[in-house]
């Protein structure tokens, strides 16, 4: 199970993607992605240059420039590579349980050491391409979480009307992102469950019902 | 009424503070704060230097260095100055109404042009002092919002048990921050009210009750 935070969605050795040339190309990509993450954590965005990534990865700089062009291209590809993984949301048997487990993953991603997720979020404030890639990443993750809401509806945990799954999922996870990524407050071990319970209660009361 | 987003909390001409020397010192501070905001919006964090701020403000650079030391000191003082204003949360007569009005202010701050609030948030990922000042700023704002929850309790909108006002306020505002500051999705005019209704429903159902 992988979190909707960017971090652990980018394993050091990603599984072989399906529709992309494997072999050397895939190995080069994995080496370069690993170097981007290491460089970002070690030196921050200011130390993230194509040359530094090339040196750290052992891949020839001409290759890196040709394939990724610049820092924005590197960050976007690292984030986009997360879409290749097999992540699926937790299935605990209840809406509150699923949302709690999801929030635990988000919190773990945002507080992990080295802080790759936070470094990627920070980079998204500097590079429009990274910001766009991060948006795509979160879109993909929230889309994959739709079954959490569908299962809750099937179990009768939601009112009869259709539920706006995205609004429910954002409401459930936003307090965790807000506390850790923006307020930069210390981790609160109770927050994943509290935020999940809040969203589940609101959902049960019809807060995310789609009109019509 | 001023938003809990940093932006409009820092007017170009702040009212005279109570316990700080007025006159020249206050004028210099206002000039320098204005220059920090303008420079941040015009050139981003990378263009924010003590020398650039001094040049833009017309204040002698020796004065700026002596009083603010570095970029972190400048950003922290700009954010801390927001604590001097007379901001109070909206009072609309209902919890959902107050939270909606609060969220409208947050959304307005995060989407205003020039994007001062977003520039300050971006800077907080680069400067530990700015991050700490932003945390203090939000702490102050959430603290000032406690009457929203107290009034709701007095009106009987909350269950009998004591309510964790900070948790309720974070839950109400977090989706707006999440969408605009992290997901960087287009503004959704319905979100302030939706997020407010969600939090109010959850609060009424006891989601933020303090045990004991």
TrEMBL record, chains A, B:
Disordered as annotated region, ranges: 1-24
Keywords: DNA-binding, Transcription, Transcription regulation
Domain HTH tetR-type: 26-86
Listed InterPro entries: Homeodomain-like_sf, HTH-type_TetR-like_transc_reg, HTH_TetR, Tet_transcr_reg_TetR-rel_C_sf, TetR_C
Transmembrane found in the keyword field: no
Protein transport found in the keyword field: no
DNA-binding region residue numbers: 49-68
Coiled-coil intervals, chain numbering: none
One Gene Ontology molecular-function label: transcription cis-regulatory region binding
Family annotation (PANTHER family): HTH-TYPE TRANSCRIPTIONAL REGULATOR RUTR, TETR-FAMILY TRANSCRIPTIONAL REGULATOR
Descriptive protein name: TetR/AcrR family transcriptional regulator
Organism for this UniProt entry: Streptomyces sedi
């Amino acid at each position: 199970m992988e979190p909707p935070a960017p971090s652990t969605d980018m394993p050091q050795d990603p599984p072989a993607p399906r529709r992309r040339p494997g072999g050397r190309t895939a190995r080069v990509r994995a080496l370069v992605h690993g170097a981007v993450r290491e460089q970002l954590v070690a030196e921050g965005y200011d130390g993230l240059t194509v040359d530094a990534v090339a040196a750290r990865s052992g891949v020839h700089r001409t290759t890196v420039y040709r394939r990724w062009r610049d820092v924005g291209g590197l960050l976007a590809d690292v984030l986009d590579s997360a879409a290749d993984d097999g992540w699926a949301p937790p299935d605990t048997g209840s809406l509150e349980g699923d949302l709690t487990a999801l929030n635990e993953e988000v919190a773990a991603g945002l507080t992990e050491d080295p802080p790759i997720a936070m470094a990627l979020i920070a980079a998204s404030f500097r590079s429009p391409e990274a910001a766009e890639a991060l948006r795509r990443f979160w879109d993909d993750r929230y889309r994959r979480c739709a079954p959490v809401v569908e299962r809750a509806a099937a179990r009768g945990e939601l009112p009869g009307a259709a539920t706006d799954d995205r609004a429910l999922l954002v409401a459930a996870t936003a307090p965790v992102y807000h506390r850790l990524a923006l307020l930069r407050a210390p981790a609160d071990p109770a927050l994943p469950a509290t935020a999940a319970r809040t969203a589940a209660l609101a959902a049960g009361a019809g807060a995310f019902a789609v009109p019509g």
